[in-house]
Specification:
Length: 146
């Protein structure tokens, strides 16, 4: 019954700023956003089947991909190639409570044709990506039980 209700909720995901999450199985959940579907799960040692990234990994990945997007737009706008553009994200979990990510380090690998004189401007643009801004100026989060 719960699976059928979750599937029905996922089918109703609207095209605005809404993301729907439905139970899949075990510790896995399906995410529906703008007609796209993805899965999150937990590693085996946390009771999952390790079929997909964890929510925490997706959180860090959203920051890294946002940085990559902003970097790519900067490069294109200024006539540089995106070839070689990559972002590596390393993160650590806090050792105390509450459970949370305590540190994130992004390394933006820039294309070879980017002049040294443009690196500071690129770093400034990347550090102002939407996800980074949302961490620097956190949104109000309300949790309702429906």
């Amino acid at each position: 019954m719960a699976q059928a209700q979750a599937t029905a909720l996922l089918a109703q995901a609207d095209t605005g700023h809404r993301i729907q999450i439905g139970f899949d199985s075990g510790e896995a959940y399906e995410v529906a956003v703008r007609g796209h579907r993805l899965l999150v799960d937990q590693p085996v040692d946390a009771g999952g089947m390790d079929r997909a990234p964890t929510p925490t990994e997706l959180f860090v990945a959203s920051l890294a991909t946002c940085a990559a997007f902003y970097a790519g737009r900067f490069l294109t706008r200024h006539g540089y190639s995106r070839d070689g553009l990559a972002v590596t994200a390393d993160f650590a979990m806090a050792s105390d409570r509450p459970a949370r990510v305590s540190d994130i380090r992004l390394s933006v690998h820039v294309p070879a044709d980017l002049p040294e004189a443009r690196r500071a401007a690129l770093a400034a643009v990347v550090s102002r990506c939407t996800v980074h801004n949302s961490l620097a100026f956190p949104p109000e989060v309300t949790i309702d039980l429906a």
